[in-house]
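Quarterly update from the structural biology core.
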Amino acid sequence: MHCLNLKLTYKCTNRCSFCFSSYLAEAEMSLSGLMSAVRSGWSRGCSELVLSGGEPTLTPDAAMSIMTLAKELGYKKIIIQTNGSGLSCNPELCVFLRDFSEHSDVCVSFSVHGPDSGIHDAMSRTPGSFLKLLDAIRIIASTNCGIYTNTVVSRLNIDCLEDIADLILPYRPQVLQFSMMHLSMPSELSTDLLETALAVRRLKNVVPADILRTEGIPYCLMYGMEGCVGESFWPEKLDLYNQNNSYMNDFKQLDSGMRWKAQSCTGCIMNEICMGIWKEHAEQFLVAGIKPIA
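Predicted structure, tokenized:
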């Protein structure tokens, strides 16, 4: 699979302190540039399209136009990454998604920070964001859209991942993902690799293995649950279209320096397919003395 990740906007209704792209909030994305990128992606062999941000539902007209074009071109799958706010207050967009999903493979990926408003709203730093999220999930659950969720593990939610799973599972999600926080400098919310891996592993008997996913947690820390490593399901090739109309073909996080591997990783049987860890967790990895899978 060859995927194009399209940044529709960097603006967002939430104010998450751990957002790694918030510094780009004022970057402008033109609809003509976005549409051109969709055409370019198709000509380069992309068959999956991810609409991300920021919060892509802040530009609903652009989102609908882009999805319509992608369908006309022949894209096989579309994923919308959202905090739910733009769906809970935009009936037109919800009706569009309901109709669109009747004949197309479209999934909505929700950011879920906690099992209740206390934790979720504290992480989003936006009062009322949890109620909007739940409203949006209920709306999408009534359509043919698939539901994905992503939870960035933090000090606030690491002890209630099971509660988050219990909240989402009744909506029959296709993916429940739990991700390492990705910041250039750790914050008071950051968790370390070992404790995060342990917390996710406790979900083994709670979340079906075929929908449980991780991000930023390497195979060596998911030993016995390697099938849950989310990067295993990523497209073989990823193109990015982001700020300043910049189209990046075949982008690789490891090659770009965003991710890191230890020298000892060369002896791991999973080395060829492992994408490593976020580079800011390198010291944790070394201090912990994590061993490769032999």
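The chain has one domain: 2-259.
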